[in-house]
Amino acid sequence: MKRSILLFIIILICFILPFSSCKKEDANSDFSEAINTANTTDEESSIDNQSSTVSENESVISTDEESHDESGIGEGGDETINRYIENAMNLAPISLIIGYDKWVDYIDNKIEAVKFEKRPNDDPPHLYKMIQYFDISKEDFVAMVESQRKNPTMTCDYTDETIELLFCGDAAKMKKELTHELAWYDNGNVYSFRELQQMSKDELDEIFETQEELDRYTAKAKLYLENYDPNLIEKLDDMTSTYKG
Predict the structure, then answer these.
(1) Residue 190 gets which letter from DSSP?
(2) 60 or 220: which leads in pLDDT
(3) Domain-located, residue 33
(4) Apex 210 CA angle, 209 and 213, nearest 5
(5) In terms of residue numbers, what domain contains 116?
(6) Per residue in 107-124, pLDDT tens?
(7) First and final C-alpha spacing in the chain
(8) Sequential DSSP letters for 59-128
(9) How many domains does the chain have?
(10) Does any domain span residue 8?
(11) Which label site among 72, 83, 117, 133 has the fewest CB atoms less than 10 Å from its CB?
């Protein structure tokens, strides 16, 4: 009798044990899959967060420059202090080439650290300066732009014309062609609308050597203001009056 009971117990254990092992393996497999999914999600979230942070930092830079336009920085949210066209001032996508940490370090030490200082009028766009500083090739830059055009993670609005100018090898041509509609290029220097408006007659005489040059500037500036900010046309007229004396 005892042998029969013992034999029954052994058979029962042999029958139950494989099922218990399978359930344990399934549980371990489900747990591993959950961990892998969580890690993948975290990595994707980290990339998205970095892109978002770069865009937010870029927005803060523009806001700061607008608040301190008296420094002559020449790039920011206020159109009247812009020296260069809008898509030539977009620095955020550079982080996709050089990496977030290098991008932040450059912004902090090369731009934010000197934002209260008068920016020289012959200073090129910050975008161009970053390309030169990090020795970014045209091939790498174009590859980044094309990737963003297909799968955008941040604003990347560089036109083909802007890209060609940034890598044309002629700094004077690049600055002249990228000059903002309200700004004026003269002999290597770029002056924002605000800077021109605050100049004396003698200073304007040095920049606009002839009435024809002033007429060319006022024509393009007025066309831009009529479409985007008609309230500033009066300030443009005041500048013209100052020039004429």
Answers:
(1) E
(2) 220
(3) no
(4) 95
(5) 62-198
(6) 999 999 999 999 999 999
(7) 126
(8) HHHHHHHHHTGGG----SS-GGG--B-GGGS--GGGHHHH-HHHHHHHIIIIIGGGTTSPPPTT---HHH
(9) 1
(10) no
(11) 117
